[in-house]
Amino acid sequence: MLDAPIAAESVLEVVAPDGARRVVRISHFPFLIGRGSETGNHLQLPDRRISRQCAALILQEGQIQIQDRGQRRGVFVNGEKIECRALSDGDLINFGLKDSFELRFRSGPAQDSLPELLTRMDHVTSSDTGPGGLRKLNLLLKATALLHSHLPLDSVLAEMVDQVIALADADRGLLLRPDQSGVMRTRVARQKGGHRLSIEGLEPSKTALRLALEHKSAVVTEDIEHDNFDLKAAQSIIAQQLRSVVVVPLFSLPSKTDTPKPMARGEPLGMLYLDSRRPAAFSRLERQILDALADEAASIIDNARLVELERERERLEQEVGIAREIQQALLPREFHHFPHLQVIGVNQPCYAVGGDYFDVLQLEQDRTAFLIADVSGKGLGAALLTTMLQGALSGMTLGQEPAKVFTHINRFLCDHSNVGRYATLFFGVLERSGRLEYINAGHPSPLLLRNGRAESAFPASSFPVGLIPEAEFSSAEVELEAGDTLVLFSDGITEAMDPEEAQFGANRLKETLDGHVNSPVEELQRVILGAVESFTRGARQADDLTLLLVKYLAAGQTATAHAG
After folding, report:
1. 36-40, 89-93, 397-401: which range is least confident on average?
2. Domain residues for 248?
3. Which of 121, 260, 423, 483 has the least CB density, counted as fewest CB within 10 Å?
4. 396-420 average pLDDT score
5. Angle at Cα 441 formed by Cα 436 and Cα 443, nearest 5°?
6. Closest Cα partner for 474 from 406, 539, 527?
């Protein structure tokens, strides 16, 4: 089926297992949901327990519906397992997993939101619906239509403040929004008659703002001289000779599962502030219109905020994607033909970019270096240190002693990586004769497959690189026999966890290799990865998985090596 564009904007609010939220626009139908990008998913959910082809949103007779397209544990809407179901605003979608992603469906701004506004108001008395009341309702009509227009947000909010000033017959109106530290700052300033005010030098009553935030409700003072709130002594009130002040806090609307309390509020989005040097009088209708406009303004601001967050997330996602492409390009895809050894390797980062690294370096005809590294932490910071480490090692020249090279790299990383990160690493130089010189810098011991057994034969004898500036590194030697295989791995293998959070472990890895000690490296890699996948049973992993296998052949033999 060809993708069909959507006419009215609807979104999915994506809630990650750690509570992080983002908003994804539904731009086409069918809108595909699942793990990974290889099946063309528009929304990718990085959880191995979620199927690659999980679910899809389709447009059927004008309604957006969700279909189960192969999720192993089923697709649920509001706790009910479904095959296909039409979605309503606020519906909660999950995939039969308690600690995985949840989706909240949000329909686009409806054209009939004004009737919904009016139905939220109490019964209006006949005195309210006189000429003055009709004028106020006309203001509501104009303001609501404006809020749902496609004008720039700043223009919409400025016009909305003008309408509220007219409603309250105030001298001036301000819209305050929180800055990055949460402090309310004036963003829009207007005065009676639809004129712009300079933001510089404005002094809204901090006392009134504080009271509105503390009580999470509007502060309406028709006459400060006779008001119950203690505003008379506020310096800004006295200095500006104010008689009436109105402050309405704007809150985001919580999701249906956030709280069972009907009056609960979300996070503060801003403050609507009005003041005047004249006493004011508000009818019940005017108060209801003011509250309704505040709710609508909060909804528009919240939607704009979520859209902006989504755009920022998309931008960061693009940048992370570029970083991932660069990092993956730095890993070997196919090795050259190496005399006396056979190599295969694979890297599976648990995030978009990872902190694991492996490589094979041809030093000269009879000497080949190989290494595996695991940088502490995950994400971009770990990837950057991995790149620094790779750059430092790529400058290794013929004849250099590995211990001196690593002492230099350690000092370089300590001097230039002010991020509190370090790397465990196993480095080896294998000669055609079978002599292996190696350094284990805090890395899990590789396994040596020999004579039908798997042994941990290379214990760590040095500190990780980038951890202690004064650390000295020393190498050790071992003679390999024809047919010996080294299994180098990151702790993403041994610390892989099943749904009950039990670890795969080094002993299980050794048991997995029993009976495969003499197998080709390609088969060994398949066996190990298959055992880990079977053990984890789709549980989400918290560490990168990297595997490098090096098999020593008899002197004079040559084999082709591969990267997986």
Report:
1. 397-401
2. 113-308
3. 260
4. 75
5. 95
6. 406
Asked if 344 and 431 sit in the same domain, the reply is yes
Question: For the residues of 217-275, what is the DSSP string, one character each?
Answer: S-EEES-GGG-SSS-TT-HHHHHHT--EEEEEEEEPPPPTTT-S-TT----EEEEEEEE
Q: Are residues 56 and 80 in the same domain?
A: yes
In whole angstroms, give the CA distance from residue 524 to residue 514.
10
> Helix, strand, coil shares of the chain as percentages rounded to 5?
30, 30, 40
Query: 458 is written with which tokens?
Result: 């290379």
Lowest mean pLDDT, pick from 133-137, 358-362, 492-496, 499-503: 133-137
- Kind plus residue range of the DSSP H or E element containing 80: strand 80-82
Residue pair 395/384 in contact by the 8 Å Cβ criterion: no
Q: Check residues 291 and 188 and name the one with the higher pLDDT.
A: 188
Q: Would you say 267 and 251 are in contact if contact means Cβ atoms under 8 Å apart?
A: yes
φ and ψ at residue 130, rounded to 5 degrees: -70, -170
561: alpha, beta or left? (left if phi > 0; alpha if psi -120 to 50) = beta
Classify strands 562-563 and 341-348 as parallel, antiparallel or unpaired. Answer: parallel
Kindly state whether residues 16 and 99 are assigned to the same domain.
yes
More confident site: 400 or 177: 177
Task: State the total domains in the chain.
Answer: 3
Are 98 and 129 contained in the same domain?
no
Number of residues assigned to the chain: 564
**Tokens of residue 269, six digits:** 């989005």
**pTM (two decimals):** 0.52
Token match 């089926």: residue?
1
| Residue range 43-92, pLDDT digits in tens | 999 888 898 899 999 998 889 999 999 898 899 999 999 999 999 988 99
Taking CA atoms, 350 is separated from 99, 247, 254, 461, in Å, by 17, 48, 31, 28
